[in-house]
Design a protein that fits this description.
There is one protein chain. By secondary structure, the protein is mainly α. It has a domain at about 55-160: Orthogonal Bundle (Recoverin, domain 1), CATH 1.10.238. It contains 8 helices and 2 strands; from the N terminus they run αααααββααα. The chain has helices spanning about 1-10, 20, 55-65, 70-80, 90-100, 110-115, 125-130, 140-155; strands at about 105, 110. The protein has a two-stranded antiparallel sheet with strand order 1-2. α3 packs antiparallel against α5 and α5 packs across α8. The chain binds 2-acetamido-2-deoxy-beta-D-glucopyranose (3 copies). One 2-acetamido-2-deoxy-beta-D-glucopyranose binds next to α3 and α4.
């Protein structure tokens, strides 16, 4: 995901018109955003081929609500961590990113997409990661905790390409 994600950031301007063509996408501007990601549509996979995820679009939309430096994204890509583990904006960015990509839905990982874009997850690793942050009441922190777990697994096991 992140390889795609990073490569694609250069193309953001060229994809600027795409949202207009996709009726189920809307963007809440940063200024008016109240912090509730549930207000943002999470169905982007729909009209394309099954399991196809437009990471360009996901990155652009999530970064418009939760402005996160590319360096944070790169760091997460290579270490599975944030420099500042209290950085809630970045956590909300990753929550948005993984939810819009369809990889995470209501704190459940989509096994097919995880295996396609992250790593060839086997055994109970998906269930294990979903259980992380279970007691966390902040949705961004909880979602981040789950995706961080998945990312750490991807980094320590063989990572599928293309990935974050
Ligand atoms: C992200 O990680 C993947 C897999 O290790 C790597 O191929 C890719 O180059 C990384 N992306 C960046 C921009 O560092
Ligand atoms: C998000 O947007 C800011 C400001 O436009 C930009 O500097 C930053 O690189 C973007 N982050 C990502 C991950 O694309
Ligand atoms: C979550 O809460 C349950 C019940 O209060 C507790 O048993 C469990 O240890 C907690 N898990 C974590 C990871 O803190």
């Amino acid at each position: 995901i992140f390889a795609l994600l990073c490569l694609s950031s250069g193309l953001v301007s060229s994809s600027g018109d795409r949202a207009k063509d996709n009726g189920d996408i809307f963007i809440i501007s940063y200024d008016s955003f109240d912090g509730d990601v549930d207000d943002i549509s999470t169905t982007t996979v729909s009209s394309r081929a099954a399991n196809y995820v437009d990471f360009d679009e996901v990155l652009r939309e999530c970064n418009s609500s939760f402005i996160t430096p590319m360096s944070h994204v790169l760091q997460f890509n290579t270490t599975g961590k944030l420099l500042d583990e209290k950085d809630l904006t970045s956590k909300c960015y990753f929550r948005c990113f993984f939810e819009k990509a369809g990889i995470l839905d209501n704190f459940k990982l989509n096994g097919d997409l995880v295996r396609k874009y992250m790593w060839p997850a086997t055994g109970d690793s998906i269930e294990y990661c979903e259980g992380q942050g279970k007691n966390e009441t902040n949705a961004c922190i909880r979602a981040y905790t789950i995706t961080q777990c998945a990312m750490m697994r991807a980094l320590t096991d063989a990572r599928n390409k293309p990935m974050v």
